[in-house]
Amino acid sequence: MNVFDIIGPVMIGPSSSHTAGACRIGLFVRMIVNKPIKSARIILSGSFAKTYKGHGTDRALVAGLLNILPDDLRLPNSFEIAKSEGMDFTIECEDIELAHPNTVRIIAKREGKEDLDVVGESVGGGNIKIVNVNGIKIDIDGKYGTYIIGHTDKVGMISKITEVLSKHNVNVNGMNLYRLQKDGDAILIVQVDDDTMGEKVKEELLKIEFINFVHFGKAMRF
Amino acid sequence: MNIKVIKYTTLKELKELADKNNLSIGEYVLEEQILSMEISRDEIINRMRKQYQVMKESINDGLNKPTKLKIEDQDQGKMFLKYVESGKSIFGDTIGKVIARAIAVAELNASMGRICASPTAGSCGIFPAVIVTMSEKFNFKEEDIIKSMFAAAGIGIVIANTMSIAGAIGGCQAECGAATAMAAAALTELLGGSNDKILNAVAISIKNIEGLVCDPVASLVECPCIKRNAHGAISAILVADMAISGMNTVIPVDEVLTAAKSAGSKMDSGFRETAEGGLAKTETGKYFWDKIFSSKK
Questions:
Q1: Does A13 contact B114 at a Cβ distance shorter than 8 Å?
Q2: Nearest CA of chain B to the CA of A222: how many Å?
Q3: ipTM
Q4: How far is Cα B291 from Cα B285, in angstroms, rounded to an integer?
Q5: pTM
Q6: Which of A91, A193, B8, B26 shows a CA-CA span of 20 to 30 A to A26?
């Protein structure tokens, strides 16, 4: 925790968990898609589902999907902006079992690719946790540049991945490997200090054999 | 993970570290953060200055933009300011202005305006109302104001790690209580209060708000939140005044935080930001809930 977690964040009100945090979750999805989103399904659960109208949670989520930041004065008008920018969306409520009270699932359509299906939690103070991407359970807080690297479980994959990062002088500050099946699918989550090399590194990683997909999200620190 | 440890976990430790280095609490927190955040002095001061700028803008917006509240009456901050300007306020000009500003910023927050959480959005009116108004009255220098914000933040960090700054965990004593303690600490430091007096102010402020529940009507951040910001702002000035005058606390500040923490933990969940108790569950509270959340889109 630093002083700007206490005197801050600067945000659109009324609630750091139900407004600012919600916006951040939308932003994460937008960053991973890396293009304007044509259409999205927003599924609210728990307290989000109960109180979203009172906290503008729906408007905050849509704002994030439009790449509007949590402190941007345009946030309350995100529905109108979505219409003018041609983004379709639906808001549904469905209780996700055993989920955090502030949970939202966002399914974003992508051109020529499978949908991006993300589950995020707003854990307080504007902080978030992304807990699922396309069925894979993960744990990302978005405070650092983050790579989500889907690959096939083979000896030497981590080494090949970190070689690319090291070649670009990118320092790793956190890493998590999730293996879904031996010799099958695996996900490596890599958190980095410097996210300016984001897309360049992503392109090089995609050239490695047995790398199946790479998502990259820039650091979200407000 | 690159974790930086704050080298104090209690307010007593913070004070001792500041005293040992011959610095005010604000000055010490600033130095420590430069090291632990690994950014330059200029950068960190500029960033804090930006937060202060947002606070000043929020006062301006709160008093000039129309509010968009769902259950509370609109524009009460503006109304109170007019009342103050007419000379009728019991509190007089300066403190009357503090009240109007605290309400206006809290209204702005509830109207989806831009604010600086300090430490939370629900209590965002307290710190700006106190510090901006007192700065006008006493002509504090901007660099001293910024330093005092570091004092406030240091206090806030310890509170966050002990009794919590989340209404869901500690009730309103955690949000408005923390904001009041922070504003009191900053004001006491600005008025030249010693590090001891700063901690006295914090202790007294928490003692005065101990046990305050979080029972927001219709789970909005309007009732009772908006007017509690006025209460917190006045309370901050009250305890700063008492501390500067020489009043002490018989219970040391860290023990006060522990006591408040226990009060929070023993609160029924209905009083911890769930809108399932207290004001939220009155007949009128339930009526407002139905009115807002049962309406078809």
A1: yes
A2: 11
A3: 0.94
A4: 10
A5: 0.91
A6: A193
